[in-house]
Amino acid sequence: MSTYSKEEKSWMWYDWGHSAYSIIISTAVFPLFYKAAAQDAGISAADSTAYLGYAVAVSTFILALLGPILGTIADYQGFKKMFFACFSLLGIVATALLTFIPNDSWELLLICYMFIAIGSAGSNVFYDAFLVDVTDNERMNKVSARGFAIGYIGSTIPFIISIAIILLAEQEILPISVTVSSQIAFFITALWWGIFTLPMLRNVHQKHYLNREPRIVANSFKRLYETLKQIKQHRAIFLFLLAYFFYIDGVGTIITMSTAYGTDLGIKSTDLLIILFVTQVVAAPFAILYGRLADRFSGKTMLYVGICVYIIVCIYAYFIKSVFDFWVLAMLVATSQGGIQALSRAYFARMVPKENANRFFGFYNIFDKFASILGPLLIGVTAQLTGHTNMGVFSLVVLFIAGIVILMLVPEQGRGQVASLSGGHHGRKTSGLN
Fold first, then answer.
1. By the 8 A CB rule, do 221 and 130 touch?
2. What is the pTM (predicted TM-score) of this model?
3. Which of 174, 235, 240, 414 is the most buried (most CB within 10 A)?
């Protein structure tokens, strides 16, 4: 990372730390821990998967409502890092609390998971918006993609430690139960996430902002209202967000529900954890590759590629029956999950005015989060109606098709079309926040 600035590297370190949540809590250990707790309580596999989907839907709905409002306030000097720190702390503390919830309280596990999800996604609203402060337009694809790659690599360290503890407990080599070993994994995740949040808090500052003025909250609502009124004037941004709404729905749902899906197929927990680890390792170089290819062929072209890969994933998921099939599915996902997210973030960041980045990333978040409601609900309802989780995953293909069709309508020249929406004086800050 020697070719990156101190601010860029500090920004990437947060992905390194936060990604431990993504794999251990969102994807691997927690879903298995929760599924076991639900099974012990007499909940069927399809119903427990559905309840997990509903929990994701509720938490993302709450944040979807808050995102644009807090994002608009965060455009003012001094608020962006404060909101980032508060949501990060919420996620880290709630993750640590999982350590103390017994495995027979599956309802409490879901409630705590909802708070973790809110903290994680909320911090990402402002983390993503900080991209405009740490780098310039020409480097956004490269920096955004490298951030995802660093995250995949960083997440493997606490993941390996956690899985080693769990496997040693299963083999009775360690004198602890599997329940306790999983709870240790939750604590490791919280610690890892917290430590690597510190460089971001110390070295990354809001350089693009609106100067503070009286009645910040009232004026923020006014600016938000004006943005909504004028949204039709910004066709490129609106169409991109609409396309993003559909295709990122499928991406996020597959990531979040993959472990529960594998469990329903009868794949052993050990096999699932190994598959998820390899997926993280494979995803890192592919995220970097997407960034480099985007600079050569354009970000939009590579988004098409990523969406097409996910369409293949959804179709293939319907037919899988063995561990080998799940391996193939996981490797397909690994080739594109980081790239499609990184390039979406960079593509959008170049379209919006920097001093209003938080407001527009608030809208980016609301499209992201409302999409995260639709996908899990779609899987949950379909799984319960048919009794087969693979039908739910297959149904996601319509979301990717809708996304690629709408993305084709996005004008190539979208950047700068919203510059008139700043709604006030703006400045450029080069030192730390007050």
1. no
2. 0.75
3. 240
237 contacts: CB under 8 Å, gap ≥ 6: 231, 348, 351, 352, 360, 414, 417, 418
* Token output for 224: 């938000």
CA dihedral 403→129→69→377, nearest 10 degrees, is 40
Of the pLDDT bands very low, low, confident and very high (cuts 50, 70, 90), residue 95 is very high
The residues with which 208 forms a beta bridge, in sequence order, are 428
Kindly list the structural domains of the chain, giving each domain's residue range(s) and its CATH number in brackets, ordered by start.
6-205+232-415 (1.20.1250.20)
> Angle, to 10 degrees, between the axis of helix 29-40 and the axis of helix 140-170?
40
Q: Which of 290, 300, 349 is nearest to 131 (CA)?
A: 349
The closest of 111, 110, 22, 118 to 63, measured between CA atoms, is 118
Q: Which letter does DSSP use for residue 100 in this model?
A: G
Residue among 368, 400, 377 at smallest CA distance from 56? 377
Cα→Cα distances 169→38, 182, 184, 353, 386, Å: 21, 9, 11, 52, 37
d(CA 96, CA 88): 12
> How does pLDDT run across 14-45, given as a tens digit for each residue?
999 998 888 788 777 888 888 888 888 778 77
Position of tokens 């469990």? 263
Which ranges of 171-214 does DSSP label H, i.e. alpha helix?
178-195, 198-203
Who's near 171: CB < 8 A, 6+ residues apart? none
